[in-house]
Amino acid sequence: MSRKTSRSLAWLLAVVLFGAAGLSMAATKTYQVTGPVLEVSGDMIAVQKGKDRWEIARDASTKVTGDLKVGAKVTIEYRMTATSVDVKAEKAAATKAKKK
């Protein structure tokens, strides 16, 4: 195998591996909620689910099919996304630090 062929295969392998990693990150679990629309704004849709009011955020990339208005029955597909993470120190570590 020539050096050029080896290098090409290495690049191809890298592209495939990074592509697969990107797909696994994009494959975040999706959820659905169905019910009548209570309120619609540019950045939110509120839906009645049983006795609860569900407010789902939306933006310019949200795909809407049909006439979205109050009273319409809709099914919303959404993903949960963390906006911040606050990691707390473990109690055992905190106790050891206090003893010193």
SSE layout:
Layout: H1 3-26, E1 30-41, E2 44-49, E3 52-57, E4 73-79, H2 91-99
How would you portray this structure in words?
This protein has 100 residues and is of the alpha+beta class. It has a single domain, classed as Beta Barrel (OB fold (Dihydrolipoamide Acetyltransferase, E2P)). It contains two helices and four strands, in the order H-E-E-E-E-H. The protein has helices at 3-26, 91-99, and strands at residues 30-41, 44-49, 52-57, 73-79. It has a four-stranded antiparallel sheet with strand order 3-2-1-4, with no helix packed on it. A hairpin with a 2-residue loop joins strand 2 (44-49) and strand 3. The model has no long low-confidence stretch (mean pLDDT 83).
Taking the alpha carbons of the first and last residues, their distance comes to 62 Å
Tell me the CATH topology: OB fold (Dihydrolipoamide Acetyltransferase, E2P)
Give a short account of the largest sheet. 4 strands, antiparallel
As residue ranges, the low-confidence spans are: none
Radius of gyration: 24 Å
Number of helices: 2
Shape: flat
CATH architecture heading: Beta Barrel
Please tally the β strands and state the result: 4
How many domains make up the 3D coordinates? 1
Roughly what fraction of the amino acids lie in strands?
25-35%
Task: Specify the CATH class.
Answer: Mainly Beta
